[in-house]
Amino acid sequence: MAQENRQPQWLNLAADRVTVRLSRPSEANGIQVDSLTLRAPTVRDMRNAQAGGASDDEQRELNLFASLAEVGIKDLEGLTLKDYGRLQAGYFRLVQDDEV
User: Name one Pfam family in it (predicted).
Assistant: First the structure.
């Protein structure tokens, strides 16, 4: 029996981006938002995130997500842990290789 690969209702995945609906509104770039969209990362995005976060994995991830969502790091730090987890889950679905 094949396992069904279902997406959560709070996730909208496209080939070049993922939109995550937040569990509660949060501030991003000075306005209240109920979702955040991450565009697909490039190699340049990864290199820039690594350059700005030296040896801190959490800082590198924040740098990357802030760049992909076009929001400030402080905006991401203001998310609830649940919503940040949703953002992480959306990112990993976005970058996973397509199944054959």
Answer: Phage_TAC_7
